[in-house]
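for the record, two folds in this file. i put them one after another cuz i was lazy. first one right below, seq on top, structure tokens after. the second one comes after a little note so u can tell where it starts
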Amino acid sequence: TTTTEPTTTTVELTTTTEATTTTTEPTTTTTEPTTTTVKLTTTTEAATTTMELTTTTKATARILAKIEAQDPTIPKEFTLTSLCTHLEFVDGSGYKEYPGSCQKYVQCSESGGTIYANLRECASGYFWHQGHSSCRQPVEVPCFDDPCLGIDVLHYNRSGCRGFYSCEFGISVPECCDKGFRYDGIKCVEDATCVDPCMTPYELENQLKYGSCKTLPDQYNNYGYLMMEHGRLQFRTCPEGTIYRHGLCGCDTAPTTFRRGRRFMGRRLKDCKPDFYMNFDHGFKELSGSNMAFDVSNVHINDGAAQFDGNAKLTLWGFMNKELGKKFAIRLRFKPDPTSTGRGSIISNCGMTGSPTVSIALENHQLKFSAKSMSFRRPKVIKDHFDPYSWNDVMYFYDGTNFVVQTNGFKTQKPLGGLLETRSNALVIGGCPRPETGFKGLIDSIEVYSGCFPRNIFKARRNPGLY
């Protein structure tokens, strides 16, 4: 234990030959220097070490706030990748709070058995909520690293020269100095050079709600953007081969590059593969090669087809929070139970959050197709007839201009524009959360595309081979 008094001792992180030690050097005390080993996997020794940060005393967790991902002095026990090791990955992705910071979090991804980690930060003064895997206003987040929990802390720096937090009843409240003023650690002082952008959650949400564009760029990710969904700030990712352009208020084709003398832009038509493809000839084997995570519940294989009983479902986790964009298609082949064609969800992103934005279902002995765009308040609905006693080839197609459906070779279309609205729900084949609302019958094959279409998209698939 360190015996020096907290008021006369400072703790400095220094680089030594052993990355797991922190040297404590007294400045105005007569006691001999001591050495304290701080390991981020334990707080036994750190509990007796005092450190000053924004006029408040914190334990070792405060030390972590000074440690950045690329800092060479970072202890071996603590790396971004190590924070990802015990996460549950959904479709190769996961999130973890960053120790010592309420605003930062680690975005983890897994590919080919290798884990990758990136340090991210919530926008506009939001705090990271691990339980909801999203950024939320500080008042909604139980963060024990909030400096406002310290005694006598009135305010502290946020980001840039204008941003700061004020403390109200132990809760951080994001604020901004006016343009031409900067936060000096105590108050806003005049500084003509301080013109950094600064927004509070209230201002950001108002801009997203009432502005002409309902999306804003994500400053930490050129391929993503911010939007409000069900009253919450959400981060979205553009489809593969596109990037977010605020001037267009949406995702656009990525810049053209050249590879070995050949023109390349996004995903070429001839290279377009589905995000998910299953024909059930090989059981529940996903055939597109995308390695999308999915879950099977009460579905049975019956002579090379999947049998659904109204309570069975196949959940595609990879479509949770996935940007569906202006290119989205579903191609499937099904045969209903002729005694149960009154209702039943064949495929949709139904769930606990909002009505589905993509759906194919049986309703009143008809096929009901629906698509919900961000540009329209109500979903576009198309109803079509089907054969209740035989196999039906169905196509669901949206290209940013028209919503097209095809049943057994007959097309119907309606005009529709804008991005398909994203949902935090997974895409579910055969059912929804409510019991007895699912599909009863057989599905022989199903493919889901986003971001591109194959050339033969309207041709019924007869070749069961791999992509």
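(here's the note) second protein begins now
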Amino acid sequence: MSHHASSSTDYSINGNDFRVGSPAVLYSSDVDVDASFSDVGSGEENTALHSLLGRASRKKKKVPLDHGRERSMSSLGMPEQYKGDWKEIEVPPLAPEEPEGDEHGGFMSKIPCWPKKKSMTEEEKIEAHKLGQWRATSIAGNDITSSCLYVAGIATMAGGKFAPISLLIVAIVLYLFRGVYTEVGSALPMNGGSYTCLLNTTTKLIGSVAACLTMLSYTATAVVSAQSAMSYFSYGLYDGFSVYWGTIIILGIFAALNLCGLSESANVALLIFIAHIFTLTLLCATAFAYMAQDWSTLVDNWSTPPINNVVSDIYFGYCSGLLGVTGFETSANYIEEQKDGVFPKTLRNMWIAVAIFNPLLGLLSLGTVSIPQIVANSNYVLAEVGGVTGGQWLNILVSADATLVLCGSVLTSCLPQFLLYKNPLTGTEPIIIIGFFCITSSLFIIVDGAVETLAGVYAISFLSVMGLFAIGNILLKYKRDRLPRDEKVSWISVLLGLGFMIAGWIGNVIYNPDNIKYFAIYFSVTLSIVLVMFTRTRILKVVLYFLANTFLDRYIGKWIRSQVRKINKQHVVFFAKSDDLEMLNKAVLYVRENELTERMKICHVYRTEEEIPPRLVHHVEILDEMYPKLRIDLVTVHAEGFTARVVHTLAEKLHVPQNFMFISCPGENFPEKIAKYGGMRIVTH
């Protein structure tokens, strides 16, 4: 079978010119033809591939002649270093599949990439489905304002009468982080929060640590929310209901609903958010009216002595009060689903909500209920306040609202690909959902339902995520300063915010040392799974070593070898703007240190051939020789420019996911926002 191209193309390597036309000509010295060609597309527009010419130092295979023709290489201008026992072979311009085996010799290919333009109607539909200000606010807002339902009691337990002051300090610290999140979100408007930020500024391993902490934070969030929901349900709606078993049941119910394909709706979240804000506002108004008639409870509470001393009470109240802003990080995890300019508004709206409600509810609790009552009923303190100030109807309303809002737990995951297996009937990920239920239930059982310990684990996880976000902002300023952003927060604000988070983290550990024990157990388990995924090829090779010369090698060894080959075959792509050898080498080093692959493509997108950097081919050839364990190919892409549509189309042609595509740090002249490139990663300065 042969294919004929309609035209020929000239290439030059180290000053030596070669012509590749129809039929394609490959100069070979015992080299496998399939090792020099790859399927990079189809159609008459594609140009034949150009080999980077024999690798004498690598494993070779004899190649049969298609037509048995031989010709003197000297007449074709072969370079001296490649002369020898050469044969000219006619081969198809494009081979159908990527080569198998141990051949690592790089190749060069030139492909057209002219994606079909989307109509304005399609673009408008995509934009119309994105979240506006209030729907986006409601999703994260339900999380952060649900914290108001238990933070007043927890802060009073730790800070006594100084709880409102502690909660006001928390609001001030959150204002600092509002700027931190805005800068990172405008520079990297991609889902993933601290994980995405650190992935684009550090290594994949450090980014995965952030992912582990985020997942642990969501795990603790689900447990604390479920336990608090059942506490309110038992107190105001169903007297005597078992909070312990109710918590496990509610976690199981939500797991079952997710398995059936029922997920959170932005419209439903907005309705719940409006009802919740209305309930909190009504409670504040009723409590203030009650307190204005009789100040004696507030006076009595304020006259009580400090738990330790003023500074200590305010500090530990602040550490516990940080639970009142959990959920602030949530908005960054769905930033791509928000319309342009909405993300900063969601942060502003959430900050206003907690800055008003948290200190105010802490003060109103002290003005209507005695401190011993607040401590005794800390799990459902706002229902107690509602019952005292408004009667049974307000007690029931607050309890119903709390049960509804606190049951809105979020499921998330950052684990291996096999966990993302989807149920074909429901389109859900059963391994994630069932695993999440098992983890949350076991955490609740291990701490025996102790809300203080649960809150401590929750706080440590959340504060770790917030601290890493601040560190990510610092690294973004230092290592990705060229990246365009709409807002820049000052260094002093970032460092102050980070300092307050570290102080809160330390305070939660000191206040209850058991917190760090349970946190360490679950964090180490989660991190171990991630580390196994990072080193799985080495682990599999160790298993193969011990299986060698045993009967099991015949049955298991073959499967393990196929898995290792499958892992190593995953291609990664680096888009090179220039032929800067130092930049290209940094990209290669990043791939070697962070990816489990033996295949890398360096792509250059150009409009005219004059734009192709003159030494790009030579430098790629140098890198291919320098790193024999990594096959490095060069792909030149003839396209309209380096646009998101071109990258998406190229990902389909090369069969490479866009999150395995890398670039150097873009500048002000970058054609589009980085988020439109589908998770493409920034790996060098």
